[in-house]
Amino acid sequence: MESPQPGSRGAEALKHIAPGSSISVAYHPLFGPYDDLLLLELDEKLLPDVLHERVVLRGQPDEDAVLCTPSKTYAMKFVGTSNSVLLVPPANHSEFCENPQKNDSNNEEEKVVAPVIKVVFGNMELIEAAPRLDKLKSFLSEKPYNFDEYDVGNVEDNQESRIGLYNWNDLVGNIQASDEELRSGLQALSAVEINGYWRLVDGSYMDMILGMLLKNSVLNDWSLNALNEDEVVSTLESDGFPGVLARHCLNVYGTKVNESMPGYVWKLDEKRVCIHFAKEILKGGKRKLERFMDEWRQKVPDGMQPTFDLVEGEVLTERVGVETWIRPFSVASLPSTPADRFSILFRERPKWEWKDLQPYIRDLKVPGLSSEGLLLKYTRRTQPSPDAEPVFSAR
Amino acid sequence: MEIRVRCNCGEGSCEEWGIVELQGVVEPQPGFHDSLPNLHIGTLCRPSSQELYTFTVGYHELTGSKVPLKKPMVVLKKVKHPDGESGCKVELQVVGVIRHKILFKNRPKALISKPQITSRERQKPIMLGSSPSNQSA
Predict the structure, then answer these.
(1) Can you cite a GO biological process for this protein (chain A) (predicted)?
(2) Cα A223 to the chain's mean position, in Å?
């Protein structure tokens, strides 16, 4: 079995050369440049995804293409070689299946031949990369859902009303991320699918619907730890909010307590609710710390205890004389590529202590680079004395 | 834009392609540039049961070996499907997989006269760093 049949051709012949024998390497009858044939090097573990058609290339013509598996994103890099790489297809390959040369090569007598279809000058390589999600935020910010839209009602699906709206297919066609990464990106942005389009909901609308939910919970004596979904949604609907947004409100500010019962039960998440109100207060600009904390305690629902560590990554503190002021500076508003992120951070503040910096970089994920690696690459670390806190500045 | 990667073969039955890699460029003599199809490039010989090969191209002989690729490669073919609205829909079709190559990484040796197949026994004992430890034992 190992040795090729006399007269056999192709990659099989190349693979099974019997010891002590030789084969001829020749140009294929259909030899050519074949620019449409590419070699892609990949990890053995990615091979099943490729063979089962679970990978896709994503990107606009002006972007470098990325390859996405269901869960990960890989940058594609062309690696050239100065060697000559002679590519030999299998003999029975449908496309390059030449008619057996009848009599014109008779003098070669059934010689075993490995035919070279193309000389390749390099191959594509994959490098695991972070999903490119910044575009997602800017897309969805084009037309956030707000009050006006609900008043208009469900407008007809015409071209004009579709401007600034993106459905799932629009997103996967434009965003260089895997399906899974795109979904978690949508979740991180608190986006919601309304009438087939993925939307951000205007902040003041969310404030209003959350306020109404809390008011209803007082009126109806609901526990914020056990909110019945059907009850909450139908009450909010009778208050004039669409059901999809009532459910979205539970999703954004709560967690499901039980998954199994018909009619889900939700628990409001203290942290998320508190952060929401902190942001609402700071919409008016910076505040003195004491005043902010007073206002905050008043605004949150009874039973919730806002503590300052909840607003890590949302506010910056500044000392002005004996006073401490805070002002809004949300990590969610910063770019997700490390270089851009650090450049904005150091423009904001030339020097950062670790405890202040950490909330603004802990979400940065670069495959193959640890958070220490990130700091080494983008910051200069100084430590005035061995027991002093290290300070980070721009490189 | 999305380009789907298609595969008709399914895992396990993906056809294996082969690669012969050598340094530099294979340059046909000027007279043959227009008649490359079926032109003989060289003779690939496996002298023994080891995965060692010689490749004789014209008056040059290369010595190399079959090496497994550190990572497999897939051969992709760009396919354009005519698409109703916007011209063409591009897909990539997996047409094969490559796991080994026969690599000739040394410079060619000129063949003055036909070299006899040398016995490889002489090369075996030469192993890096082996002699000092033999002595000490």
Answers:
(1) maintenance of mitotic sister chromatid cohesion
(2) 35
Answer for the pair A167, A108: CB distance below 8 angstroms, yes or no: no
Question: What's residue A91's pLDDT?
Answer: 85
Tokens of A33: 């440049």
Distance CA B123, CA A365 (A): 51
Backbone angles phi, psi at A287, to 5 degrees: -135, 155
Cβ contact, residue pair A17, B46, below 8 Å = yes
- For residues A172 and A4, give the distance between their C-alpha atoms in angstroms, rounded to a whole number: 47
Q: How far apart are CA A92 and CA A320, in angstroms?
A: 79
Contact criterion met (CB below 8 Å) for B16 and A15 = yes
B2/A58 CB distance under 8 A: yes
Q: Mapping DSSP to helix (H, G, I), strand (E, B) and coil, where does residue A128 land?
A: strand
Round to whole Å and give the CA distance between A40 and A203: 45
Single out the residue of B108, B95, B22, B75 nearest to residue A81, CA to CA.
B22
DSSP classification of residue A166: B
In this prediction, what percent of chain A has a pLDDT beyond 70? 90
pLDDT in tens, A176-191: 999 999 999 999 999 9
Q: Mean pLDDT throughout A83-95? A: 86
Across the interface, whether the CB atoms of B1 and A58 are under 8 A apart is answered yes
pLDDT score for B130:
35
For residues A239 and A247, the answer to whether their CB atoms sit within 8 Å is: no
Q: What is the pTM of this model?
A: 0.82
The Cα A225–Cα A275 span in angstroms is: 18
pLDDT digits (tens, 9 = 90+) for A365-374: 888 888 889 9
CB A390 within 8 A of CB A381: yes
pLDDT of residue A163: 87
Chain B residues with CB-CB distance to A82 below 8 A: 23-24
Token representation of residue B26: 């294979």
pLDDT of residue A10: 86
Most A CBs within 10 A among B44, B49, B78, hence the mutation to make, goes to B44
pLDDT(B127) > 50: no
- Give A257's contacts (C-beta < 8 A, 6+ positions apart): A225, A226, A264, A265, A266, A267
pLDDT digits (tens, 9 = 90+) for B40-72: 999 999 999 999 999 999 889 999 999 999 999
- What is d(CA A67, CA A125) in angstroms, rounded to the nearest whole number? 10
